[in-house]
Each structure stands twice: as structure tokens, then as C-alpha cells.
Design goal:
Layout: E1 22-27, H1 31-35, H2 37-48, E2 53-58, H3 63-68, E3 75-81, E4 84-90, E5 93-98, H4 103-110, E6 117-120, E7 129-130, E8 135-136, H5 141-148, H6 156-169, E9 176-179, H7 186-201, H8 203-212, E10 218-221, H9 229-239, E11 247-249, E12 254-258, E13 275-277, H10 281-304, H11 310-314, H12 317-331, H13 343-355, H14 363-367, H15 370-387, H16 393-405, H17 423-428, H18 436-444, H19 452-455, H20 458-474, H21 476-483
Parallel strand pairs: 1-2, 1-6, 2-5, 3-11, 6-9, 12-13
Antiparallel strand pairs: 3-4, 7-8, 10-12
Helix pairs in contact: 4-6, 6-7, 7-8, 10-12, 10-15, 10-16, 12-21, 15-16, 16-20, 16-21, 18-20, 20-21
The protein binds D-mannonic acid.
D-mannonic acid binds next to helix 10 and helix 14.
């Protein structure tokens, strides 16, 4: 599809772009960090200087490096607002490595004395943890490999442990480890899995990490759907230049970071709108439950109802009404807002962000990896409602829609391309002719997803069974409308 635009001149790094030294290694460089953190960091350097250039690492594939390298790692950030598009060239990424090609080069970069921050967007599954407990899954194939081969780590926790070990042995200070993934208390969670792994490698290393290293929690927010070939082509037609790796994002952005860095070393992010706070938890609860929670609701119910994107989904009154009720009746009543934040205004702003027609965010993309997303997005609100003696029927319907989605067959009878590390096990619950109660108990048996107390609560299993029966009988759109 991009065949003919590749004849156009290739995007080049602007001649007057600053050339900072590398101070940050980012694991899992993809569209989101280039549309969010990298732009903030670039603005902070423009204001206050500092060598905070970013070396990106892909832990899996070479594709993004192959696209960015010929452009000297410059890329177009396309801000897609309801009124149109505005463009800027991002230049904070200075270089990129593909871990499987040369894991030692990645470890060497992380152990470089000039690097003081290692940040991550490796998605929920990159933490190799069991969501129900937050602890490292020692049976995870990547962790098994990391323990067997010290020279060639594969997982993010593996790279962090081996690189920190190099720094310790070289007598260097550790780096700050900054998680930028949508996980609850992401810094603490990452510290937990790193310490679990380090303790198996070398007790002395684990002690050093615990004493010297810091893992600030963060809340990140900007809707940045995956770039498509059509985006690349549209941009090239508009500019006359071929950028093989642009990023698409909405105007809104927010970044809240716990202000704990090794030796206080970080870019001057407070000067460019980043909120540096003592406690990120209220912000993260608000964002994970209000935004990501309803995103997942729209992803599963919307996909089943035939809505391709989030903006298509919220254009349907049944689904728009459903998430409004979800916020008002089930999510906000159990949420403590961050100081000074008006949650009603926050959720109204979300409805506008979702409706933005410039953003084509596929329900299928958000539906990915639900087994790792539902705990922090949905199950926390469920447990708190149940503890308060309330029955969160809307949240039950969201979980039922996820179950239905992971059956692998849509309401139209077409196969669904379910992407989830547990996809096979989830699909296997859907034995021919299984009744809703049996399906629900099959899912609740996955103790890596559902905490024991919740799975054993009869109000939960009965409510889910009813929601699943409604969904199977009426279909997603009607079931959502009946609730709303
Ligand atoms: C989305 C998020 O794909 C998903 O699961 O819910 O990527 C969401 O767009 C971002 O967290 C917004 O900040």
C-alpha cells in the first residue's frame, strides 16, 4: 500500500535539531512512548538542556529500528484533533537497538555511566507477573531462559537485573527504573518482579537493588493508536515526504510521576507540564479505572456489536449510555479522586476524547491481552462495590463480554483473532454446549487473573452468570442498552 510513497524523499533529521548525549535507555520503544514521554523529554531539554537523549530498545522485532534508522530516528508526531491535524518532528530518540540481535550491546548501553534512567513501555505482559498477585511468574518461559543464560537476557526484568549487576560490579550508581505501563503501582510492581528475579540470581545483587535503586510509579495518558499503512500514505501525500514510522496521537496528554530518582537526576519535566508528585496512586486509580476500564468495556462490547473503533462504538447510544452509567453508578462511587480533581468533569472530557473522529483506535487493538488488563481496569472496582454491598451489574457485563470475545467466535459467527498469552486456555473453556454457569466457573478457575476471595464470592459468580446469559441471549448492543 505504501509502495508508491516510498519514491518520495525520505524524512531526515532536521539539520538544526539538537544532538544531546544519551541519558535514557527506553525498553519497548513503540508508538506510545514516541507520542508521549519522548516528546515531553524533548521539550524539557529544549527548555533546560541536559543530555537526555533516548536510546530505544526493541525487545523483540527489528521492524521499527529498520524504519527509523534511515531517518536518523526522527519521526513525525501527528496530533489528530477534531478540527484537523498538526505535525511536529520528534528528535529525542538518538538510536535504537534490537535486543535479540545483540543483547550484550543492550546491557552495555544500560551499564553506561552516562545513562541514569531506564524507562519502560513493555505492555502488561512484559512484566512476566501473575496479575492476581503481582509477583514474578517463575514458570514464564522468558524468565526460565533468563535464569539459565546470564549473557543473553530476553525479558525486561532479565535485562534490568543483568544490567544492574554490571553497574554494581563496576562500582557505578544504579539507574532509576521508570515504568510507563498501565499497571497498578507500576513502579512498585516492577521493583517486586526485579527483586524476585535478582534474589534467584544472586542474593547480594538483590540486596543492592533494594537499597540503592529506585522505581518511581507513574501515570501515563495519551491515546495513540497503532500507525497503519493508510496513515503513512496520508501523511506522505500531505507533506511530500515519506516517513516510515510516524505516530498518531490525540491532543490530550498527561504524565504524573512520583518524584524519586537516583541522586535526583532527571530531565526538568516539571517545566513542561509533567506533574511530579509524592503519591501517584490516586491519579493512576482514576486513569486505569475511568479511562482504561471503559476502553476495555467499549473494546469487548463494541467489537461484539460490530464497532470497529472507539469513536464508532461511542456513536451508538446504547454503548455511550452504558459507559456513562458505568462511571456514575459503579466506578466513581468507589474512587477517591486525586487532590483537586473533579471526577465528573474528568469523565465528561473522556467522552469527548473517545468521540474524536480524527483518532481511529480499533476496538480489536484495545481488546488484546485482556487477561492482563482486566484486573487493574475492572476487578478492583468490582471488589470494592461488592465489599460495599452493591452489585456492579455493568462491570459484570464487561467481564462477560470479555469471556464471550475470548471464545474466539463473534456474534456474527466469524472467527475473532484473539491476542492474549492465555488465548488457548480461555477458548478451551467454551466446550460445545457449555451452560453460562459452567463457562463462568471455568474462567474463575484462572487464579492468575481472579484473586481467590473474589472468585469464591457467590455474588460475583451468580452476577457473572446472569450477565453472560443476557449477553448470549440478547447480543452485546441490546444487553448494554438494557443496562443503560
Ligand atoms: C488502551 C490504552 O490499548 C489499550 O488497552 O486502553 O492504550 C489507552 O489508549 C492509553 O492508556 C491511553 O492513555
Amino acid at each position: 500500500m505504501t509502495g508508491d510513497v516510498t519514491d518520495l524523499p525520505r524524512l531526515a533529521r532536521p539539520a538544526d535539531a539538537p544532538a544531546p548525549g544519551i541519558g535514557i535507555v527506553h525498553l519497548g520503544l513503540g508508538a506510545f512512548f514516541r507520542a508521549h514521554g519522548a516528546l515531553y523529554i524533548e521539550e524539557a531539554m529544549a527548555r533546560s538542556g541536559g543530555d537526555w537523549g533516548i536510546l530505544g530498545v526493541s525487545l523483540r522485532h527489528a521492524d521499527l529500528r529498520d524504519r527509523l534508522e534511515p531517518q536518523d530516528y526522527a519521526y513525525t508526531a501527528c496530533e489528530l484533533g477534531p478540527e484537523g491535524e498538526s505535525l511536529r518532528i520528534g528528535t529525542a530518540v538518538r538510536s535504537m537497538l534490537v535486543a535479540p540481535e545483540d543483547p550484550d550491546a543492550v546491557l552495555a548501553a544500560m551499564a553506561d555511566p552516562g545513562v541514569t534512567i531506564v524507562s519502560l513501555t513493555v505492555t502488561e505482559k512484559g512484566y512476566c507477573h501473575a496479575p492476581a498477585t503481582g509477583r514474578l511468574d517463575f514458570a514464564h518461559p522468558d524468565i526460565v531462559r533468563d535464569l539459565a543464560d546470564a549473557a543473553r537476557p530476553v525479558s525486561a526484568p532479565g535485562f534490568l537485573c543483568r544490567a544492574l549487576d554490571r553497574r554494581r560490579k563496576a562500582g557505578l550508581r544504579p539507574f532509576t527504573v521508570m515504568s510507563c505501563d498501565n499497571l497498578p503501582e507500576n513502579g512498585a510492581l516492577l521493583q517486586g518482579v526485579v527483586l524476585d528475579l535478582a534474589a534467584r540470581m544472586d542474593a547480594e545483587l538483590a540486596r543492592w537493588i533494594e537499597a540503592e535503586c529506585v522505581f518511581p510509579c507513574t501515570m501515563v495518558d495519551r491515546i495513540a493508536p497503532a500507525t497503519t499503512d493508510a496513515d503513512i500514505e496520508r501523511l506522505a501525500r500531505r507533506t511530500g515526504i515519506h516517513d516510515a514510522a510516524p505516530v498518531m496521537h490525540e491532543p490530550f496528554r498527561q504524565w504524573v510521576i512520583e518524584d524519586r530518582f537516583v541522586d535526583g537526576r532527571r530531565p526538568a519535566l516539571e517545566a513542561v507540564g509533567v506533574e511530579l508528585v509524592e503519591d501517584v496512586r490516586p491519579f493512576e486509580h482514576m486513569k486505569l479505572r475511568c479511562l482504561n476500564g471503559t476502553h476495555s468495556a467499549l473494546a469487548y462490547l463494541g467489537y461484539l456489536a460490530g464497532a470497529e473503533t472507539v469513536s464508532d462504538a461511542v456513536a451508538r447510544p446504547a454503548l455511550a449510555g452504558f459507559i456513562r452509567r458505568l462511571w456514575d453508578d459503579e466506578i466513581l462511587p468507589v474512587l477517591t479522586p486525586p487532590p483537586g480533581v473533579d471526577l465528573a468533569a474528568y469523565t465528561h472530557a473522556l467522552t469527548e476524547r473517545y468521540a474524536n473522529p480524527g483518532i481511529r483506535h480499533r476496538t480489536w487493538q484495545i481488546a488484546m491481552d485482556g487477561s492482563l488488563k482486566l484486573p487493574q481496569r475492572i476487578l478492583g472496582s468490582v471488589s470494592e462495590n461488592l465489599a460495599a454491598g452493591r452489585t456492579p451489574r455493568g462491570l459484570f457485563l464487561v467481564i462477560a463480554a470479555w469471556m464471550r470475545y475470548t471464545s474466539g467466535v463473534g456474534e456474527d459467527g466469524q472467527p475473532i483473532d484473539v491476542r492474549d498469552p492465555m488465548a488457548d486456555r480461555l477458548r478451551a473453556v467454551w466446550q460445545d454446549g457449555a451452560e453460562p454457569a459452567a463457562i463462568v466457573s471455568g474462567y474463575l478457575a484462572f487464579d492468575e487473573i481472579f484473586p481467590g476471595a473474589l472468585a469464591a464470592d457467590p455474588a460475583f459468580s451468580a452476577g457473572l452468570t446472569e450477565a453472560l446469559a443476557d449477553l448470549l441471549r440478547d447480543g452485546a448492543e441490546v444487553a448494554a442498552a438494557q443496562y443503560a
